[in-house]
Amino acid sequence: MADSNSSHDYPSENPKPDPDANSSLGNDSSIEAIARRVQDSLSLGKKHKFWETQPVGQFKDVGDTSLPEGPIEPTTPLSEVKQEPYNLPSLYEWTTCDIDDEDTCTEIYNLLTNNYVEDDENMFRFNYSKEFLRWALRPPGYFKSWHIGVRVKVSKKLVAFITGVPAKIRVRDEVVNMAEINFLCVHKKLRSKRLAPVMIKEITRRVHLENIWQAAYTAGVVLPTPISTCQYWHRSLNPKKLIDVGFSRLGARMTISRTIKLYKLPESTVTPGFRKMELRDVPAVTRLIRNYLSQFVVAPDFDENDVEHWLLPTENVVDSYLVESPETHEVTDFCSFYTLPSSILGNQNYSTLKAAYSYYNVSTQTPLLQLMNDALIVAKRKDYDVFNALDIMQNASFLKELKFGPGDGQLHYYLYNYRIRHTLKPSELGLVLL
């Protein structure tokens, strides 16, 4: 239910931090083009052997409109689900990771910080904070048994990790109980041990034990078969630092001072009634978000508990702001972003890139462009270096206008054991996976 990269058995569950924020993506990313490229690569013997055995959309079925939408395989009686864990290579053992335990959380943090997703040039690596991990892995109704680690039997060192969290995800008119799979990470020195496929099978088994048969995940690599392919865009907030660390380049005929001026933002937000979300706002924000997400083909089915967990502000994890009409006191608009820094590798002057990622945004009275500009102003005030956004939902409507540049990172969305007949445009997708 998570992914594996055919080149070195290592999945990039999330987009790569983008070393060139201003390079444009020249290639054709339609699913038909991806299918063609995959057919070409199959002739070179690069088969996705593991994924061809799984209930996921297969490249050979792309464009076959006779296949029904919905589950690919029927559910199995729970009594027939394998009760024992899958076998690991003899030197390793399974462990269930208690994210509430400080020592365990530190181990997970260290494993991810040193071995998780890097960009192609090995300049940046995701650096999820412990607070972020606790937020990401403990939503309402989470299962501790879905936080799976692999340890070396002798030393007890944690060398691999994979997680799932429960989510209600609506596909067209059907609300489906799913697992969101994330954080598949194998220690760099063990990439040849074929641990990833076993870990994917084990998380799948544990998800099945809870009578859940579908999953959602994302990857920076192409696997069978994306339901949608999205692109990351980046908005410089601290252009000098981004250029200094190699995240972006100085534009042609541009100087540093002109670049700084180009990306300068106002000191304060402009929308009347723009303020931080509070606990008392949960019912109003839930109504706003549910109504907004109803227009997308695939989107989460949030209730108040979900909104409280995922969107109530948590320092250095998630920031949420809303617009409360000064006249009627009605909550009319909402914007949010989460914090995911990257370690800067091998730079003398800087060690961390502080990045904000656009999360869920709803505009009903305030123009989305204005709302997001206020979000940029807030992020800049909080010392973020860059603001990232996917071109999903209605995001494409503000990206160019607000001086976002297209990155060269793509993010592919996948569903496990659920077929969608037609590839979705990014604007038909209402789901953000961390």
What features would you highlight for this structure?
single chain; 434 residues; alpha+beta; Aminopeptidase; 2 domains; 14-stranded mixed beta sheet
Give the strand tally: 17
Classify the oligomer: single chain
CATH architecture assignment of the largest domain: 3-Layer(aba) Sandwich
Broad CATH class of the largest domain:
Alpha Beta
Overall geometry comes to globular
Summarize the structure.
By secondary structure, this protein is an alpha+beta fold. The chain folds into two domains: 64-217, Gcn5-related N-acetyltransferase (GNAT) (Aminopeptidase), CATH 3.40.630.30; 232-412, Aminopeptidase, CATH 3.40.630.170. It is 23% helix and 24% strand.
Structure overview:
The protein is an alpha+beta fold and 434 residues long. The protein folds into 2 domains: 64-217, 3-Layer(aba) Sandwich (Aminopeptidase), CATH 3.40.630.30; 232-412, Aminopeptidase (3-Layer(aba) Sandwich). The protein is 23% helix and 24% strand. The chain contains 10 helices and 17 strands. The protein has helices at 31-43, 102-115, 130-137, 195-209, 239-244, 256-262, 282-293, 304-311, 368-381, 396-399; strands at 92-96, 124-126, 147-152, 158-171, 174-186, 214-219, 228-236, 274-276, 298-300, 318-324, 331-339, 342-344, 352-353, 355-358, 362-363, 386-390, 405-416. Strands 1, 3, 4, 5, 6, 7, 8, 9, 10, 11, 14, 15, 16 and 17 form a 14-stranded mixed beta sheet that branches. Strands 2-12-13 form a 3-stranded antiparallel beta sheet, with helices on one face. 44% of the residues are buried. Mean pLDDT is 89; it is low at 1-29 and 40-46.
